[in-house]
Amino acid sequence: MDTMTLWHITGWEFAALAGAALLVGFSKTAVSGANTVSLAIFAAVLPARASTGVLLPILIAGDVLAVLTYRRHAHWPTLWRLFPAVAAGVVCGTLFLVWADDGTVRTSIGAILLMMAAVTVWRRRAAEREADPDAVTTRSGRLKARSYGVLGGFTTMVANAGGPVMSMYLLSAGFRKLGFLGTSAFFFLIVNTSKVPFSAGLGLIDGSSLLLDAALVLFVVPGALLGTWAVGRINQRLFEQLVIAATVVGGLQLLLR
Length: 257
Fold this sequence. Notes:
By secondary structure, the protein is an all-alpha fold. It has helices at residues 11-29, 35-45, 48-70, 76-99, 102-126, 139-159, 162-172, 177-201, 207-216, 220-231, 236-256. The protein is built from eleven helices and no strands.
């Protein structure tokens, strides 16, 4: 694996990665989807493919903190309906990584993120939002869950970019702020943990990447605490606007790099 150890990174590069790790913690407990900025920073400092393996344990640490914070607010019927489709997406993403180069990965994920943001904005302007997350039990709800699930599994496998896709799905399903955060926390803890064997098998996680993770994971905690403090001060409308804006920024960053 072409990665970098702690000693091969300059002080400025480590500071950038530390800031990105702090943002991961913030995004997991406040504005989901904002960690696409972290993804872009990691890909800029480290080799693009290697960066996904370094970032994955950082994301899992953030997921653990989010679950501890919002565990009472998860909506499990939604999670159970998503997991089979996500598993299919992860398998597709693994196969995609076998042959895809960095440029293909970035372009594909960036386009998907922008498409999801556009669809979500259109849906929210065209019709009233569903007030009850149980709307996923309808036929159209199940189809939507499967579609977003496959896309989420694919994007999270190839670029750790499943957050914005799931954010768009949860917003379109009518989740309020705490239900949104609790459901996404459990979702990504389970999905990201299940990705570890795939990433290790592809050579994206090794001793060097874990050494760097050990130095960076400490910065996730203050980010998560900051997010927990901030989320209670963000109203629902602003929360949704920030999630969509973070998705658009992340998609543009991937396309323009």
